[in-house]
Amino acid sequence: MKILISNDDGYLAPGIIALADALSSIAEVTVVAPDSNRSGSSNALTLDRPLSAYRAANGYYFVNGTPSDCVHIALTAIMQTKPDLIVSGINQGQNMGDDTLYSGTVAAATEGYLFGIPAIAFSQVEKGWSHLNSAARVAREMIEQGFPTLSQPFLLNVNIPNLDYAQIKGVKAARLGKRHTSEPVIKARDPHGRDIYWIGPPGMAKDAGEGTDFYVTGQGYVSLTPLQIDLTNMRQLAQLQSEFGAGEI
Ligand code: MN
User: Would residue 168 count as lying in a domain?
Assistant: First the structure.
């Protein structure tokens, strides 16, 4: 099995190193990741300048671009053959609910999925890398077990509680929860007296009800959420089709 690994925390992040180490025992692993932390970059592609890929001493490739750039370059230029699976992470911090729209971790997986390759994004619920080896073991076991019943390609989002492996209760399939609106920007002054703004933290969970990723991870389970990319609102489409017509064939 060939696996392409990327992330959004950068190629030096402990999460990607733990993931690559864990997966190299079961697969031929190629790592292509951003040269620095690009968390929150979503699915951005860099179109206003050229990109470069360098190879680090440990064999990882690093790119001066976004997670999506990395997977795009890996699939179309670096890798000689298509990988069987794309794995992103392990991210420092949860990607649950609306986070998935902003997440570069999820985006790296999404870029692979858009190329027709199954992809999984892994995140740890808490920041700080505690119990990282436990999370890497969960990722390895999930990949070893595979998802034979899912149609290909699939796009999965996984959040792992920061717990000892023995304390993790298991894996639960979960839907995305929802967050409240993000906190306001944090306003400050730069040394020249000009106003500057830091984007504030995400909102607290608004829908963390049973069955959500927020809920199951809070109960000590790993959350497993299948994602899709088609943003069409089917109910409103039907409504608008009856009003405006469905288009000519
Ligand atoms: Mn990140």
Answer: yes
